[in-house]
């Protein structure tokens, strides 16, 4: 990706639309470190029979649009646990840290970590404006 696209993804969401989902990616700074954040808005109900297809779709988007700029990832989606487990496993070796957004804790819970200082179960507190953008609630 060009530096112009990198700057754009730091300022706003990169949005890719498919018939299955809308995928949004952005680079944010938390505690002086860059994090990639992805938000998947599903257009169809998730079904176990198509789990592999869904995981591959999101993993490709994450690796293409986040990995070049951030080694820490936050995943946000209204999806069942059986979606998050294989997705985190699929991208867990590419990123130093993988966390999932939880609106109840106003941040992301670390699920996978290969980086000192980021332990599984720790919460990455997100800025209120990012939480509002993910949950689409006005601040």
Task: List key phrases describing it.
alpha/beta; seven-stranded mixed β-sheet
In short:
This protein has one domain. 31% of the residues lie in helices and 33% in strands. The protein contains four helices and seven strands.
Strand content: 25-35%
Structural class: alpha/beta
Overall number of domains: 1
Number of strands: 7
Over the alpha carbons, how many angstroms does the gyration radius reach? 14 Å
Average per-residue pLDDT, rounded, comes to 89
N-to-C CA distance: 32 Å
Number of helices: 4
Helix content: 25-40%
Q: Which parts are unreliable, with pLDDT below 50 for 5 consecutive residues or more? A: none
Query: What general outline do the C-alpha atoms trace?
Result: globular
Order of SSEs: HEEEHEHEEEH
Give me the oligomer status.
single chain
Major β-sheet annotation: 7 strands, mixed
In spatial order, strands of the major sheet run 1-2-3-4-5-6-7
Describe the structure.
With 139 residues, this protein is an alpha/beta fold. It has one domain (3-135). The protein is built from 4 helices and 7 strands. Strands 1-2-3-4-5-6-7 form a 7-stranded mixed β-sheet. A hairpin with a 2-residue loop joins strand 2 and strand 3 (33-42). Helix 2 packs across helix 3. The chain is globular, with a radius of gyration of 14 Å.
């Amino acid at each position: 990706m060009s530096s112009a696209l990198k700057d754009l993804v730091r300022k706003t969401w990169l949005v890719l639309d498919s018939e299955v989902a809308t995928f949004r990616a952005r680079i944010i700074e938390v505690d002086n470190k860059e994090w990639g954040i992805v938000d998947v808005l599903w257009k169809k109900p998730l079904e176990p029979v198509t789990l592999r297809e869904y995981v591959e779709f999101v993993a490709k988007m994450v690796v293409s649009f986040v990995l070049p700029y951030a080694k820490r990832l936050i995943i946000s989606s209204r999806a069942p646990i059986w979606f998050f487990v294989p997705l985190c496993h699929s991208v867990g070796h590419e990123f130093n840290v993988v966390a999932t957004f939880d609106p109840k804790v106003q941040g992301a819970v670390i699920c996978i970590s290969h980086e000192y200082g980021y332990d599984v179960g720790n919460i990455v507190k997100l800025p209120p404006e990012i939480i509002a953008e993910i949950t689409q609630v006005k601040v």
